[in-house]
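Need a sequence for this fold. Nothing fancy.
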């Protein structure tokens, strides 16, 4: 496993996104725990969760409780594994995901997450999504209060644009350590945010990093005139004897030294495969092929 820096901490270059372990289609608890344990066995030291990772209408915190049990049964400590969680979203029954960035609500959510995780302070606490009904500075101010109170050690933001990153950085300074946005071969909307994170020294945590890369994709309906839109990832995977997912994650790591992908997994073999991407080094010719495939998919010239 290779490592990268997040808020001055040394963490694995590949993290684990715990969302699939707690939402619809989730595995039973035994397999879920085995998946987290497999990640730890593979050298993963960053686990990403959220209080809203649960079934619609269910009690918040299923994923946080699961992660806490997995660490306890494995014997891992907060000093060995960085647990990142998020607050500010909800999943009521019969509704879409909700957003609530009201400072009091965020502080209460952090308190509840703290208890579920069973730690003295949350390793990394992230605003899950800006709330358009609440001034952004007020939501970020809640993170500052939580830092000052010692209830969280590091602060991050998620699903934000470049302007919001700069505004959060103005409030939190070097206590803002990460940005978690959607980014993958299929989705490049956060390219400006990725570059800004490199400029500011913030870790960039792509969620859904494998977008567009599926094992069955070449046989599916998403083909274009020139073949599958991301055929290069599959071709290089076959040439190297690895999965296209590994190729994708390795490519993401080349995008910036601050990138730390957090692929989701619901099986031990899946996260073991993803973690192996940290040790896969792509050569210049392979990177050129992948960049061309991504540019074509995104409609970028040159």
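Here you go.
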């Amino acid at each position: 496993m290779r490592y990268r820096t997040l808020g001055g901490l040394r963490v694995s270059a590949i993290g684990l996104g715990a969302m699939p372990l707690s939402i619809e289609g989730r595995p039973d608890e035994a397999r879920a725990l085995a998946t987290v344990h497999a990640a730890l066995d593979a050298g993963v030291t960053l686990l990403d969760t959220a209080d809203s990772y649960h079934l619609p209408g269910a009690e918040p915190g299923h994923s946080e409780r699961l992660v806490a049990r997995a660490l306890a049964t494995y014997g891992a400590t907060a000093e060995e594994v960085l647990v990142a969680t998020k607050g500010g979203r909800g999943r009521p029954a019969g509704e879409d995901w909700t957003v609530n960035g009201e400072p009091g609500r965020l502080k209460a959510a952090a308190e509840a997450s703290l208890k579920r995780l069973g730690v003295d302070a949350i390793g990394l606490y992230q605003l899950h999504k800006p709330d358009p009904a609440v001034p952004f500075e007020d939501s970020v101010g809640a993170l500052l209060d939580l830092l000052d109170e010692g209830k969280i050690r590091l602060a991050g933001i998620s699903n934000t644009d470049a302007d919001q990153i700069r505004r959060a950085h103005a409030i939190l300074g070097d206590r803002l350590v990460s940005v978690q946005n959607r980014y993958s071969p299929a989705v490049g909307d956060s390219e400006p945010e990725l570059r800004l994170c490199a400029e500011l020294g913030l870790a960039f945590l792509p969620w859904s990093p494998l977008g567009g890369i599926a094992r069955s994709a070449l046989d599916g309906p998403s083909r274009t005139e020139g073949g599958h839109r991301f055929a290069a990832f599959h071709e290089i995977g076959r040439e190297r004897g690895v999965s296209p997912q590994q190729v994708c994650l390795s490519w993401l790591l080349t995008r910036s030294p601050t990138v730390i992908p957090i692929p989701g997994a619901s099986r031990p073999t899946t996260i073991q495969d993803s973690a192996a991407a940290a040790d896969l080094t792509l050569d210049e010719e392979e990177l050129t092929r992948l960049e061309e495939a991504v540019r074509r998919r995104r409609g970028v010239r040159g």
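For context: The chain has ten helices and 13 strands.
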